[in-house]
Amino acid sequence: MWIGVRYLGMGQFDEAIQNFGKALRGKDVIARCGRATAYKQAGQFDQALRIYDQVLREYPNDDVVLCGRAEVFRAKGDMQNALSSYELAIQRNPFKPTSIRGKFDVLRESGNLSAAAAFLEASRPRFPDDPILASAHAELLEGQAQWLAALSAYDTVIKNFPRALSAKLARARILLRLGNAIEALEAYNSILVTQPYSSAASLGKAATLIDIRDFASAEVLLRHPNTPKSIIDWRRHLLMALSFQAQNDYKRSKSMFEFGMQRTPFVKVKRLYAAAFARQKLRNGEPSLAVRAIDAEPNEISNVVRLHALAASGRTQPALDAWMRIGRQDVNFEVAEEIARRFRVVDQQPQHDLAWIYRVEERALLLEAA
Asked: Which residues contact 122 (CB under 8 A, 6 or more apart)?
């Protein structure tokens, strides 16, 4: 069964499904949940929910099952059911931190940062020694674009919990966001020394290599099936498309973006494909087509690309409305503000040229794609 866990970490979800299936012995909850997780990661959400629902009928208070079911809804982009499921898990297991962290993540990803912060503040004192909740505070700072404070908070988490992989990944991510790509690359390499099968570290490294224009090295890390199956496959496919876009191979990138928009079952990834496609239309001088393609959500780069498309197409009032909805604590506020200046949505002089806007948008896309 632990081979199945290894396959999950490597992003090989078909193999994980098969291995967990072999490991099933009657009512082995761990193997059944592992199989459901593999189905979720492969985008087969109905199969995952079916397994979790079956297990819940037998073990209605199991925290792993309740949280696993919530994560399927989250992966589908069904945040309301994800939130309700985590609240049920908290109700049934009030002394388990996993469901607390899950509810925090759903609130944060839904753009409700104030509610996420209040919930975390109320919950953390009960779990002072839990690394996943310790990282949550740093993630709030990161989500509010308080980069240096977030770096310091992640450093504290890593000092107190040296094996906290998520904090190490986040630290590398912030370094890239700040333009310190070489330091970010070193951070990802350091993670891969001890966690060579970490797909998250591999994807982050590939995004960093694209950022520094080492496309050949990135391509080695981004090999994927012709038809992606898992969430990791789709992220590799998207990063490869972004690599072609960065190399000005617009024909190949456009084809891959369109394929992803049509075929991926993962809602958030679909929005990233649409944002990248819209951004390409903007660069081609087709802002109206960009407006039609984009599907925006708060605190994602899709929201900024939508603002860019509206402003560039001369839709001043809708652009102003979009700009007003982007809060100062949005992770991409700086580039959004520059777009508003550049296209005279606000009465301020631009501080950067258009090339800077495209570069920052690209880096944000790379970060979210990874």
From this structure: none
C-alpha to C-alpha distances, 266 to 48, 56, 71, 75, 130, nearest whole angstrom: 14, 25, 13, 7, 30
Q: Could you tell me the pTM of the whole model?
A: 0.86
Q: Which residues contact 50 (CB under 8 A, 6 or more apart)?
A: none
Record the tokens describing residue 187, joined without a space: 């951070």
pLDDT in tens, 260-316: 999 999 999 999 999 999 999 999 999 999 999 998 888 899 999 999 999 999 999
Backbone angles phi, psi at 12, to 5 degrees: -100, 80
- Render pLDDT for 314-345 as a digit per residue (tens, 0 to 9): 999 999 999 999 988 889 999 999 999 999 99
Instruction: Annotate 197-218 with DSSP letters as a single string.
Output: T-HHHHHHHHHHHHHTT-HHHH
CB 246 within 8 A of CB 274: no
Q: Please state whether 249 falls in left (phi above 0), alpha (psi between -120 and 50) or beta.
A: beta
Q: How many CA atoms lie within 13 A of 326 on its CB side?
A: 30
Grouping H, G, I as helix, E, B as strand and the rest as coil, residue 16 is helix
Q: Is the dihedral of CA 75, 13, 174, 272 positive or negative?
A: negative
